[in-house]
TrEMBL record:
Gene3D superfamilies, per the entry: NIF3 (NGG1p interacting factor 3)-like
Pfam families reported for this sequence: DUF34_NIF3
Provenance organism: Staphylococcus pseudintermedius
Protein name from the UniProt record: GTP cyclohydrolase 1 type 2 homolog
Keywords associated with the record: Metal-binding
């Protein structure tokens, strides 16, 4: 996950990327949605996503998503 986040940061040429989860998690399937994506994180997990990429998520929503997988 940490490597994935660093790769996203580099490819998008942005100053920072925040992530929650295990740093050493392997990524095979990615779900991407614009905006906060609130409500779609559970759908992403159900469809087998290892990571959920969003442009704008609130701190507590990110922690909630981490708790639920």
């Amino acid at each position: 996950l940490e490597d994935f986040a660093a790769n996203i940061k580099s490819k998008l040429n942005i100053p920072s990327v925040r992530f929650v989860g295990e740093s050493n998690q392997k990524i095979k399937r990615i779900a991407i949605i614009g905006g906060s994506g609130i409500g779609y994180e559970y759908q992403a997990v159900q469809q087998g996503a290892d990571v959920f990429v969003t442009g704008d998520i609130k701190h507590h929503d990110a922690l909630d998503a981490k708790i639920h997988g």
